[in-house]
Amino acid sequence: MKLSRRTRGAVAIAGAASIALLATACSTGGGASAEGEDITLTVTTFGTQGLEGLYEQYEADHPGITIKATNIDTGGNALTDWQTKQAAGAGLPDVQAVEEGWLSKVMQVSDSFTDLRDYGADDLSDQWVDWKVKQATDADGRIIGYGTDIGPEGLCYNGKLFEEAGLPSDREGVAALFGGEDASWEKFFEVGKAYHDKTGKAFYDQSGFVWNSMVNQLPEGYYTADGELNVEGNAELEARWALLAQGAADGLSSNQTQWDWGGGKAFTDGSFATFVCPGWMLGVVKGQVEAGGGDATTGWDFADVFPGGAANWGGAFLTVPTTSKHPKEAAELAEYLTNAQSQVAAFQAAGTFPSNVEAQADAGVTGESELTAFFNDAPVGEILGSRAEGVVAQYKGPDDSVIQEQVFGPSIQELDSGKADGPTAWQHALDLLDQLVQQ
Amino acid sequence: MTSTITPPAEAASPTPSGGAKHDRTAHRTALTTRQRLSRWDVRYSPYLYIAPFFVLFGLVGLFPLGYTFVVSLNDWNLLTGPGEWVGLENFAAELQDPLFWNSLFNTFSIFLLSAVPQLIAAIVIAAVLDQNIRAKTFWRLSVILPYVVTPVAVTLIFSNVFGEKYGLINNLLTTIGADPVMWKTETLPSHIAIATMVNWRWTGYNALILLAAMQAVPKDIHEAAAIDGAGAVRRFFSVTIPSIKPTIVFVIITATIGGLQIFTEPKLFNATSSVPGGPQRQYQTTVLYLWDLAFNRQDFGKASAVAWLLFLIIVAIGLVNFWLSRRIAGAEAKRTKRSTRRRLDAHAAARAEASALTARVGAGGVTGAMVAEPMLDDPDLDEPRPEERA
Predict the structure, then answer these.
(1) Selecting from 1.10.3720.10, 1.10.3660.10, 3.40.640.10, 3.40.630.30, what CATH number does the domain B98-344 have?
(2) Given an 8 Å threshold on Cβ–Cβ distance, is B166 in contact with A4?
(3) Do B166 and A2 touch (CB under 8 A)?
(4) Which range is least confidently modeled, A372-376, B8-12, B185-189?
(5) Same-domain check for residues A246 and A303
(6) Structural domains counted in chain A
(7) Adjacent-strand bridge partners of A275
(8) Hey, is the C-beta of A413 within 8 angstroms of any chain B C-beta?
């Protein structure tokens, strides 16, 4: 749930101008809109959401509507942008893309987003996986966003390295190795230990992503469902922390810099053999491997298994801030951009896995693509669809991201670099929690 | 002005003084529009000319400063807006927060690690450029080149070079058999790495400013010193450095202000770190800390308090700088005054001694009399002249 999840390979596509030009050309042809006035809708997205091509289509179908789109390069920058405008109370677009990682912040000011139930969200809610809709529903039951993509997590692994270590390297074999349906973290670290003993190499890149997955897949994470802080004395979290600490002490973590990985080098030089992979991360892995000088032959593959059960990391929503002058048209646009057809198009353009149930089953998603070719012909669309089953929408408290980044971040680094053992690092995290989070 | 154009007849007529005054004012109001405009022009337009700065400063400098102070007195969440009025509680809380002091320590450590070597290097570079070297413009342009590159690009490159696992420096270190340095997760190495970025960017800039000052040092002082037998090094320390002292003070003050506000380098040095400024805040400077407070922890009130504390610290340091430079200047003046007086005293003493000596010698010997003669004769020479004339 690191905010800048789409850092890599994300190129800002500033197509607004050309689209606007096209729009003016189109609008002269068709009949005028019902009110006879031209409406300009502003849209802010980030990273690679794959929506650019859809704006043109929408404008062509809706004469009188012009879309002015802005795409911000990374999720982190988009968050800063949104926060600044939200705090200033001005400058927000008609349609604002919001990341799952910001939900804890967004929900604090959920009343500054239009309740999409006023525009038919209730009738639509069946089209998404149920937990996606739950995530976008605030405490008062208002639905403030339409889901775009989701990030169900599977396990990326390097088949060649597995083979060298004498482990099964085919997808089914690997899934079975980690326990299949009953895959647990204990099993994951057990396999890792065996791998390390055999090869002397690390098993995963760094502990941060593993910890995030461990926490986010629980029914209750840093907060209880009632919004109470749930860290101190949380036996489940402590047990998982102990596993993580033992893994780091056993040398299973490669202590890489997250989101850097030596410019992709770590993905190609055999530094680690597994990697937690939400759908959108597959594109990141591909980009990193290519940046590090590798290609499909480097051996990365994608298995339909995840330790500890289903987990989700990331995904986005399209919201309509209440400052919008055309909430109805904005909601219609958001609806269009998140319907099954659009999500298939977005998946094909940017590899974002659909939250729309119908789109998940679409041949455009389950079929072959550049991504499947890269991952040893793994049916990534199918696997992700299966990984999306059973995900729970965990309650995110107001300081969730602070706890993740600033309370546990330092302690995870202590584990990875060997500065502290499990209990000490856990205590450091609790100390920081007292210091940083008002309780 | 009026008196010169007043006709003589009117001046002669016996009008009462009040009437004269009235006439005068009448004259003043009788100025043509053109004249009035020109008068206004002289009187008010200077204010108009300097107004843009002050209006802009008020808008983007003074108002935010005041507003920040108001925010700092509230429990203000970035997103949900102002909460309770808490007075100076935010300031009190920050002054007790170890993370605030940690950020101050980092700021000063990085500042010292960058400012001191930077200043020394800049003076040396400026001194070299001040010599009569070939292709002067080329060298001068070269030292300013790092300044032209945006800090973001600089940081990205240096961040890569200082990478812990795949960075150039650690690669070199491991090739020669040394242990890799943890540039991004340990305090001192990270401070040195960030100071290096700052130095790379600012040394050339400061060198050019110092070079300009050096070129303004009159050549005749150098020549006089050279004639007196001072070597190049002696001239550098006794002529160049004292002459450019005001510029050095200026460079130090700007470096201080810049150094205490350092943000980009530590922010992007390890851009993907979960905590801005290093995993355990090893290089979280004060500005980075306040950014973190505002945009990650959403505590706008405390962030504003930190901004104000930083402002006060910079003002305090500015005052200390000012006082120090005045003291140095004052001490300098005093010292020169003292040494001049000492030299004058010595000179007077020598003269007195010499005259006493001559007097003594004149009384007792021929050689002395020959030396003393003109002195003794002087009054005699002066006095008789009028008589001769008469």
Answers:
(1) 1.10.3720.10
(2) no
(3) no
(4) B8-12
(5) yes
(6) 2
(7) A156
(8) yes
Burial A68-77 (b: 16+ CB within 10 A, else e): bbbbbbbbbb
Same domain, A274 and A401: yes
CA distance A19 to chain B (A): 31
Same domain for A95 and A182: no
* Shortest distance, CA A26 to any CA of chain B (angstroms): 39
Q: Are B183 and B190 contacting, i.e. CB atoms less than 8 angstroms apart?
A: yes
Provide the b/e sequence for A331-362 (b: ≥16 CB within 10 Å).
Answer: bbbbbbbbbbebbbbbbbebbbbbbbbbbbeb
CA A173, CA A427: separation in Å to the nearest integer?
39
| pLDDT, one tens digit for every residue, chain A (439 residues) | 443 444 333 333 333 333 333 444 343 333 334 455 789 999 999 988 889 889 999 999 999 999 999 999 888 889 989 999 998 888 999 999 999 988 889 999 999 999 999 999 999 999 999 999 999 999 899 999 999 999 999 999 999 999 999 999 999 999 999 999 999 999 999 999 999 999 999 999 999 999 999 999 999 999 999 889 999 999 999 999 999 999 999 999 999 998 889 989 999 999 999 999 998 899 889 999 999 999 999 999 999 999 999 999 989 999 999 999 999 999 999 999 999 999 999 988 887 899 999 999 999 999 988 889 999 999 999 999 999 998 988 888 888 889 999 999 999 999 999 999 999 999 999 999 999 987 6
- Chain A CB contacts of B99 under 8 Å are 435
Note whether A96 and A53 are same-domain residues: yes
A77 touches chain B (CB under 8 A): no
Asked if ipTM goes beyond 0.95, one says no
Size of the A and B interface in Cβ pairs below 8 Å: 79
How much is the pTM? Answer: 0.81
3-state DSSP of chain A:
CCCCCCCCCCCCCCCHHHHHHHHHHHHCCCCCCCCCCCEEEEEEEECCCCCHHHHHHHHHHCCCEEEEEEEECCHHHHHHHHHHHHHHCCCCCCEEEEEHHHHHHHHHHHHHECCHHHHCHHHHHHHECHHHHHHCECCCCCECEEEEEEEEEEEEEEHHHHHHCCCCCCHHHHHHHCCHHHCCHHHHHHHHHHHHHHHCCCCECCHHHHHHHHHHCCCCCCECCCCCECCCCCHHHHHHHHHHHHHHHCCCECCCCCCCHHHHHHHHCCCCCEEEEEHHHHHHHHHHHHHCCCCHHHCEEEECCCCCCCCEEEEEEEECECCCCCHHHHHHHHHHHCCHHHHHHHHHHHCCCECEHHHHCCHHHHCCCHHHHHCCCCCHHHHHHHHCCCCCCCCCCCCHHHHHHHHHHHHHHHHHHCCCCHHHHHHHHHHHHHHHCCC
By three-state DSSP, how is residue B83 classified? strand
Are the C-beta atoms of residues B122 and B251 closer than 8 Å to each other? yes
**For residues B302 and B90, is the Cβ–Cβ distance under 8 A?**
yes
The answer, yes or no, to whether residue B21 has pLDDT greater than 60, is: no
Q: Which domain holds residue A156?
A: 152-312+391-436
Is the Cβ of B96 closer than 8 Å to some Cβ of chain A? Answer: no
A168-172: which pairs have CB atoms within 8 A and are 24 or more residues apart?
A: A169/A301, A171/A301, A171/A302, A171/A303, A171/A304, A171/A378
